Amino acid sequence: MLIQIAPNLWHMTCPLTTAGLPLTSRMTVVRFASGKLWIHSPVRFGAAVREQLARLGDVAWIVAPNKAHHMFAGHCQRAFPQAALYGAPGLADKRPDLAGMRALGDTVEPAWADELDQVWFHGQPFVNEVVWFHKASATLIATDLLQCWGGKLDWRAALYARVTGVRHHFDVPRTVRLVTRDRGQAAASARAVLRWPFTRVITGHNAILDQGAHAAVARALARFGR
User: Fold this and answer.
1) Residues in a beta bridge with 85
2) Is there a domain that residue 19 lies in?
3) Domain assignment of residue 111, yes or no
4) 10 Å Cβ neighbour count for 46?
5) How does DSSP classify residue 56?
6) In this structure, what DSSP letter does residue 101 have?
7) Tens-place pLDDT, residues 145-176
8) Which pLDDT band holds residue 17 (cuts at 50, 70, 90)?
């Protein structure tokens, strides 16, 4: 079920196996002042969560935030066919089956601008992640760009986290660093993210960082230069 993080902000994690690696993926839900819901990186959910979402508000937008987190976008769209679906730049070429998907970019949608800001993190065309700032809760919403895998994990997941440099350590994982093709563009995107006054970070896997968040993100994004 959805767990509340802050006023008008919820999350839910779901177990997932990718390439034989057992992990968890996180869905984040924002409720706007209008009562409309914005769903980020949907996971698979059943009737109980669908009913919970319906009680919270009107699901108006579904967001697949990068070119990896799209597996359950269609599942969510079928549950809420009235919602508009948005995907990371280039995702439509990878998922032509997601009919009507609109491309995200550098400019925040006018309908979201009072509640959210966004940055397309450039220089990583394999990922093309868009990150978000929820203004009311001062929360940065990321997916794969920033990670920290803590707690008890399956040995395979723990090994993967150590190899990628995020086992009990908040950082840009090595996998993301390796697919960075333009460090100058990535550094410019990092500067844009760090202009936001966030005090919390939600990531797509495992960690939510509530203390020292801005400093931790600054250290991580320094991987791309200043």
Assistant:
1) 62
2) yes
3) no
4) 9
5) H
6) P
7) 999 999 999 999 999 999 999 999 999 999 99
8) confident
In single-letter form, the type of residue at position 188 comes to A
Q: 134: domain CATH number?
A: 3.60.15.10
Q: Locate tokens 């979201």: which residue?
A: 112
Structure tokens at 225: 């230069």
Strand partners, 61: 38, 84
Q: What is the pLDDT of residue 16?
A: 87
Distances (CA, A) of 172 to 36, 57, 134, 185, 226: 32, 34, 21, 16, 15
Q: Is 176 helix (H, G, I), strand (E, B) or coil?
A: helix
Residue 199 and residue 210: Cα distance in Å, rounded? 7
Q: Would you say residue 15 lies in a domain?
A: yes
Domain span including residue 28: 3-105+116-224
Using DSSP bridges, classify how beta strands 3-6 and 36-40 pair: parallel, antiparallel or unpaired. Answer: unpaired
What is d(CA 179, CA 189) in angstroms, rounded to the nearest whole number?
15
Number of domains into which the chain is organized: 1
Select from 217, 226, 215, 209 the least CA-distant residue to 26: 209
Axis-axis angle for helices 183-194, 213-221 (nearest 10): 170
CA angle 195–89–92, rounded 5-degree value? 155
Rounded to two decimals, the pTM is 0.96
- Residue whose tokens read 């979402």: 53
Tokens standing for residue 221: 């994004």
Question: Which DSSP state fits 41?
Answer: S
What are φ and ψ of residue 216, in 5° steps?
Answer: -65, -40
DSSP alpha helices (H): ranges in 37-82? 47-56, 73-79
What is the token pair recorded at 102? 């609109």
